[in-house]
Specification:
mainly beta; 417 residues; 4-stranded antiparallel sheet; elongated
Length: 417
């Protein structure tokens, strides 16, 4: 029990967890928390049980404040109190739910050496009540269809396969999905016994997530330490706020290129170091007359990706390579054009353009080698598959351990970068 303005503390002994089965914030009698302002004795907040469970369910100890900022005000001018009924259970819940209001931190944790598995996450707003921003007279109605597209990626990068983590509920971390609306972060997650793969992706093998930003026209380097590789999980070329890369042309603050993640992964995924330019030539122009910037979130992982993707525009060379002791296996290759965006030639292009020699040429130069160079030219692929269309070479390949333990030496050998 807690009278209005005070906090109720719930606790369980070791290896037991709080399970809340009843909660009421309001007033149902005169004698509990006596007060002169006890006008209404039949009121309770419909959010009582939800809020207490969010704060306490599955924990061994917690504290929740009896306040209209938490539960809303079910009876104006009446002094209220919080009543909570709970038991201490042996088994934690199968799914935890945690929420943090904008500007606060969401703290996620698992007991007994278990690791976090993120089921759902959203930074934005889908309900009117949470975080003390209810509708008031003359107050702007909040956007209730507000979800940051980065929600899952950011939370997973910070928390997946960890015993505990902290996620700031801020626009700096997620971007601003609905300007002018007060937001919150809500996360649903389970606590699982770690598998062999989970241990491989544990914090000892995966670095903390990193953020790099480049203003339009500038080039940014992404880099990982020895034995680790770049894993890009979010990228945005456009503009989401006024403060990053200040400029007079900040007209549109809700634009991003749909090609952002693809382009950064092509340039950097699986490498130890790479350079990427924040340019319309690379990403297209998502908002004309607005000065843009590139933001990239990535982590450094010990295991390289199962499949690499690399692209070279017509007239350039495509460089493919594997780590020492591994050889290339070509999965797919195409010299031609199947999309309008890549390589800065988006108009008057044949999008059904494929050189029949694509696989055979790339395999002859690269299959079973540690490294190779493939010129993206008509001459290399024995002709022009679509005259008048600017083409590019796209290759998907894996790096495998050779079955006989040997590696074919390529004419040009160089380190994986």
């Amino acid at each position: 029990k807690a009278c209005e303005g005070n906090s109720a503390k719930l606790s369980c002994p070791n290896e037991r967890y709080v399970y809340v089965y009843s909660a009421s914030f309001g007033r149902t009698g005169y004698f509990t928390c006596p007060h002169p302002s006890s006008y209404n004795t039949s009121c309770t907040s419909i959010h009582s049980l939800t809020e207490v469970r969010l704060a306490c369910e599955g924990r061994q100890t917690c504290s929740i404040r009896a306040s209209i900022d938490v539960f809303g005000d079910p009876c104006v001018k009446t002094n209220k109190y919080l009543l909570v009924r709970y038991v201490c259970v042996k088994h934690p819940p199968s799914v935890y739910v945690r929420r943090a209001c904008q500007g606060d931190n969401a703290v996620l944790s698992c007991p007994n050496g278990r690791v976090i598995k993120i089921n759902r996450a959203n930074y934005g707003r889908t309900e009117m009540h949470p975080c003390g921003h209810l509708t008031r007279p003359f107050q702007r109605l909040p956007d209730l269809n507000c979800s940051a597209s980065t929600s899952m990626g950011v939370v997973q990068s910070r928390c997946e396969n960890r015993i505990s983590c902290v996620v700031p509920a801020t626009n700096i971390v997620f971007g601003d999905p609905c300007n002018g609306t007060h937001k919150y972060l809500i996360v649903y997650y389970g606590c699982n016994v770690p598998s062999k793969r989970d241990r491989m992706l544990s914090p000892s093998n995966v670095s903390l997530n990193l953020l790099k930003t480049a203003c339009q026209g500038k080039t940014r380097q992404l880099r990982c330490p020895n034995s680790k590789h770049i894993d890009v999980y979010w990228a945005s070329y456009g503009r989401a706020d006024y403060d990053t890369c200040p400029h007079v042309d900040r007209h549109n603050t809700s634009c991003t290129s749909i090609h952002s993640l693809t382009e950064v992964r092509l340039a950097c995924g699986g490498r130890k170091t790479c350079w990427i330019k924040a340019s319309n030539d690379v990403f297209g122009d998502p908002c004309n007359d607005t000065y843009k910037y590139l933001s990239v979130r990535f982590r450094c992982v010990r295991s390289p990706p199962p499949v690499y993707a690399r692209r070279a525009c017509q007239g350039n060379n495509l460089v493919l390579s594997c780590l020492y002791g591994h050889i290339m296996k070509i999965k797919r290759a195409n010299y031609g054009r199947t999309e309008s965006h890549p390589c800065g030639h988006s108009t008057s292009a044949d999008l059904n353009c494929s050189a029949l020699t694509s696989m055979s040429v790339v395999q002859s130069l690269c299959e079973n080698r540690r490294s190779c160079i493939v010129p993206a030219t008509n001459m290399a692929f024995y002709g022009d598959p679509c005259n008048g269309t600017h083409k590019y070479l796209m290759v998907y390949y894996s790096c495998d351990v050779p079955s006989d333990g040997t590696t074919t030496t390529s004419p040009v050998d160089f380190p994986l970068s």
